[in-house]
Amino acid sequence: MKVCVVGAGASGIVSAIKAREKGYDTVILERNNRCGKKLLLTGNGRCNLYNSDMKLDYFHSSNMKELEVIFNKKSKEVIDFFKSLGLVIKDINGYLYPFSKESKSVLSLLMKRMESLGVKVNYDTFVTGIKKHGDNKVKVMTDKGDYVFDKVIISTGGKVLEKTGSDGNGYDLVKSLGHSLTPILPSLVQLEGSGDFYKAWAGVRSEVRLTLYEDDSLVKSESGEVQLTDYGISGICTFNLSGVVSRGLYKGKSEVIYINFVPWFGGSVSDFKDYLSKKLEELNVDLKVLLNGFLSEKLVNLFFKLLKGDHDLMHVADMIMQFKFQVVRTKGFNDGQVCSGGVPLNEINPETMESLKFKNVYLTGEILDVDGICGGYNLGFAWMSGLIAGESV
Ligand SMILES: Cc1cc2nc3c(=O)[nH]c(=O)nc-3n(C[C@H](O)[C@H](O)[C@H](O)COP(=O)(O)OP(=O)(O)OC[C@H]3O[C@@H](n4cnc5c(N)ncnc54)[C@H](O)[C@@H]3O)c2cc1C
Prior knowledge:
Blueprint: E1 2-6, H1 10-21, E2 25-29, H2 37-45, E3 50-51, E4 59-60, H3 64-74, H4 78-85, E5 89-92, E6 95-98, H5 103-117, E7 120-122, E8 127-133, E9 137-142, E10 145-149, E11 151-154, H6 169-176, E12 185-187, E13 191-193, H7 198-201, E14 205-214, E15 217-228, E16 232-234, H8 236-250, E17 255-260, H9 269-283, H10 287-292, H11 297-307, H12 313-321, E18 323-330, E19 338-340, E20 348-349, E21 354-355, E22 361-363, E23 371-372, H13 377-392
Parallel strand pairs: 1-2, 1-11, 2-7, 11-22
Antiparallel strand pairs: 3-6, 4-23, 5-6, 8-9, 9-10, 12-19, 13-16, 13-18, 14-15, 14-17, 15-16, 17-18, 20-21
Helix pairs in contact: 1-5, 1-13, 3-13, 9-12
The chain binds flavin-adenine dinucleotide (FAD).
């Protein structure tokens, strides 16, 4: 049997390994002149490949039931698969990395396994179309000519960071096969805010709690380090809210994030006002000095400017604990780490990843409507779906 994998990214590589392990003649068609271009860039070059707390709660998909089937089938096997390649894994607060902290380790072990099994890779080959061939075969058209296969796995990724090869062309491929797409939006991405004061806080990093309200309803909170930039906010806790924000803005909802710059203070705004008042008296210092004890100078100066001389402690406490950040837009696809949206999982069989629209075609990875938060979840889904497709062809 002849199997074709379109795209040598994370999910394509593992699906090719599994198909070849079954003894099938397996070829990957990859538009780049190398495999795993994006994989090498993951986790700032360190590749956060999985998470020890791999739970459905950390994912978004419009078909969570189907995602659960995929999880039940494979989430427990991913780490064993990498160990079987020889990878030694380091656990940093649940985030799993290669012990070398180099994504190269992951890619070279995958490449070695492909080589030893005899998976063929045709580089510089751009797949332009997929068609039915006879009753049971699939024709794959490329810029190098046409090929006929028994089974085809589409692993073309999403459309973030186009230079890695995943530029969204895969969406046209799957649409031509009869699939629909949920809105494709950037996720794990920076957020731009309204107002013109951002230059004043640019460069500050602060431990905060971010609380997202959508059309005035509480949605989600995230704690961690926020990076304040000249357009708004960035950093992992921002990214982890960005998928919800992206989808909300797309639907025309108002997305407001309240930033609590004193997450170490347990009480309410009024309690914080009392705390400030008590400390001012106790320490006999002025307000700026007191605030400088726990906030960066840039922030204190900005707050004073925004308060326009109003030093009412309730207002000061409110600004510090509930700083209103009205999101106007997210940064674009080339700034994000993953796409939210894609082919809905109810258009594939989650037991096999086979398309329900086009026989003998399978879909894996980011082209599907699944996205996770930061922490190895997106590669996690790429591995799980790739393993299932490869084993099922
Ligand atoms: C900067 C950055 C950092 C990230 N860090 C992490 C992280 O640390 N942990 C994590 O879990 N996730 C991370 N991600 C997300 C993760 O990299 C992706 O979710 C994952 O790579 C998706 O795998 P995939 O197999 O679906 O597609 P990809 O890895 O994008 O691979 C798709 C492949 O298909 C090829 N291709 C596309 N179209 C065609 C065509 N028509 N013909 C031939 N070939 C084609 C492309 O060239 C590419 O090689 C990061 C993403 C980015 C951008």
